[in-house]
């Protein structure tokens, strides 16, 4: 049990620059990460980058005043029961729980944030950092996610949405 919520501890979000910083995180970020944990049936959500001081953010390709420096963002990877989730599956689930900033970083890592018109310069961003496409309308397939997952056998995971298999992976 973490000090922020059931699954998250503030230390996971600390700046990776090596210095100690006082920082706060938007409670909405933690609430949505918990919802994402539940929706995906995650065994773990790893925070690969949480809060960043302005200098560290700039050094890793961000900006001096980006969402990480405001405590409203996290870069994450999610482990499911049998495998690491793809970034596309994570992005779709993140949209379903209401993240307003989502960016695919690589095959498994995704940026999520809770930006709005009061805490950031733009209130919505869905992008794919692999391609530079900053104008993704939606990551959703249009089908309702009912959260059903099942293991067909000990070597395969299947995700079913509205009775349609949308994700299968060999373990």
Describe the structure.
With 171 residues, this protein is of the alpha+beta class. The chain is built from three helices and eight strands, in the order αβαβαββββββ. Strands 1-2-4-3-5 form a five-stranded mixed beta sheet, covered by helices on one side. α1 crosses α3. The protein is globular. It starts with 26 loop residues before the first helix and ends with a strand.
What are the defining features of this structure?
alpha+beta, 3 helices, three-stranded antiparallel β-sheet, five-stranded mixed β-sheet, 171 residues, globular, 8 strands
How are the SSEs placed, and which strands pair?
Elements: H1 27-40, E1 44-49, H2 54-59, E2 73-79, H3 87-97, E3 101-104, E4 110-113, E5 125-128, E6 149-153, E7 156-161, E8 164-170
Parallel strand pairs: 3-5
Antiparallel strand pairs: 1-2, 2-4, 3-4, 6-7, 7-8
Helix pairs in contact: 1-3
Instruction: Profile the largest sheet.
Output: 5 strands, mixed
Number of strands: 8
Low-pLDDT segments, ≥5 res: 142-157
Quote the beta fraction. 25-35%
